[in-house]
């Protein structure tokens, strides 16, 4: 199966062609991502209207480029997969309408893919993981611990009750006068800092649920910065290092509980695995924390290559391929984009029943 994938839910315009072999393995044939980082950096965050316009300008060229790199034409494609939520509605409309137009013109089936499902299934493309496994998604818009049970069957075990982890990095950077995007800047500054100088809060640690909270941490960073006058470079480094340590400890507790729950509920699974996804997966402190945690719990830690952890269209194409291979129906051309769209099967059922 060859699938064309389209991703436009946030600030990356992406197109990809992915091959899924009958036995279930996959290969990326062509993959292009255009980041809009520069368009948004002056504003310190993603501006929805600018994002939508940038998708319109770039998407058709990117699709041609992905096909070219894959060495195929639309005739060789078995289905089209386009992200149809969750995300910024303007961008979703651009990607989904383009997908519909191609489906209509070629007569090929269209899969309207949940962006989070793309992240959730990537590890099956890169590492051939089998179900079930746990996924920690940490990006600018999401912080979720998800049980991946089967194609189309997901349970959200935990989510952030306020800021996403990437958002906490970005806001902390802004507060400290570091450049956008904040994650890499904070990580860099933290390298020369003292992680023990500030004892930042670790919200929800010890809580029996598996949720996350990061907004209190951001407030504590602001207070720390305001308490020092003038703030020197070393102070910023110390704040960043202490911030990262608070996050490491939070993750250790929250995700650790998730691993324990998995072992209890799925005691028969041999070689359980934790997958990380999202832009914050680039962070070395986060990676080593999760690696150590997995070692301690007897889990395999899977971190796909970074360009497949951040937003891309290969994961969308792959999710479409998995849906097709699993016999799930394609979507009608009347399918609508959804800015909000939980991946959790039960949450979807509630929305469907109007509750
Ligand atoms: P979505 O949430 O819809 O998937 P997004 O564009 O917000 O999309 P990504 O592109 O996956 O998310 O990731 C961007 C986020 O990752 C930003 O918040 C950025 O600060 C963070 N990030 C990137 N590199 C690092 C790093 N080295 N350490 C910490 N955070 C990082
Ligand atoms: Mg992004
Ligand atoms: Fe994403």
Explain how this protein is built.
The chain has helices at 37-41, 48-70, 89-106, 115-126, 165-175, 182-190, 215-226, 233-265, 284-297, 306-309, 314-325, 345-352; strands at 2-7, 12-20, 26-35, 79-85, 110-114, 133-138, 143-150, 153-159, 273-277, 300-302. The chain is an alpha/beta fold and 355 residues long. A five-stranded mixed sheet has the order 3-2-1-4-5, sandwiched between helices. A five-stranded mixed sheet has the order 8-7-6-9-10, sandwiched between helices. The structure holds adenosine-5'-triphosphate, magnesium ion and fe (iii) ion. Residues 9-11, 87, 139-142, 166, 169-170, 181-184, 187, 278-280, 282-283, 310-311 line the site of adenosine-5'-triphosphate.
List the helices and strands and how they pair.
Blueprint: E1 2-7, E2 12-20, E3 26-35, H1 37-41, H2 48-70, E4 79-85, H3 89-106, E5 110-114, H4 115-126, E6 133-138, E7 143-150, E8 153-159, H5 165-175, H6 182-190, H7 215-226, H8 233-265, E9 273-277, H9 284-297, E10 300-302, H10 306-309, H11 314-325, H12 345-352
Parallel strand pairs: 1-4, 4-5, 6-9, 9-10
Antiparallel strand pairs: 1-2, 2-3, 6-7, 7-8
Helix pairs in contact: 2-3, 4-11, 5-6, 5-7, 6-8, 7-8, 8-9
Catalytic activity: L-threonylcarbamoyladenylate + adenosine(37) in tRNA = N(6)-L-threonylcarbamoyladenosine(37) in tRNA + AMP + H(+)
Organism: Sinorhizobium glycinis
GO molecular function, one term: tRNA N(6)-L-threonylcarbamoyladenine synthase activity
